[in-house]
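Feature request disguised as a bug: please show the residue count (204) next to Glycerol-3-phosphate acyltransferase in the output. Example input:
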Amino acid sequence: MDFLFNINVDFYIAAYLIGGIPFGLLLAKKFAGVDVKSAGSGSIGATNVLRVVKETNPALAKKLGIATLVLDALKGVAVLSAAYFMGLDESVLWAVAVLAVLGHCFSPYLGFEGGKGIATGMGVMMFMLPVETTIALIVWLVMAKTVRISSVSSLTGVLALLISSFIIHPNMAHAPVVFIVAILFYKHIPNIIRVIKGEEKRVI
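Example output, currently without the count:
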């Protein structure tokens, strides 16, 4: 059990456990009395919180959607910030980033199910790769305004981040970035299938 007293391991565990907190589920149950896992797409993310709560309380839906987005983004950043100020190595920071995303997507509190990981992924990436993430957010915003399909906008932004990371930082180890992007795409497989079939809903 000595490994539990290793500061790196402590941060890895914290990243996964904090990343796994299902803020969307908790907020929707607490303030709207709905279970987002049993409605809409079944996701615990901001988009589904907005979609499900909007059916009964449009005014509250936007507030809960924004709160979910912010909290999901910050939970990975919180652990990364603590690890950074503790002076941990960059490789440890990347591991923390990956584990925070894994925690959200495969939450230990939800039977290892979870959200799509976009907000948490963008949060940790903004910390680790701020320029690339800014590019990704611009691409996401343009796609959101034009295509108006949440999954398409998100995944296009994720791809922009990945491609720009290779251009801006050609000599860095890209494995963590590729891994996080792969997780996000994996969690969006149902959305990708619906897009191909022309069944994916637009954001109104």
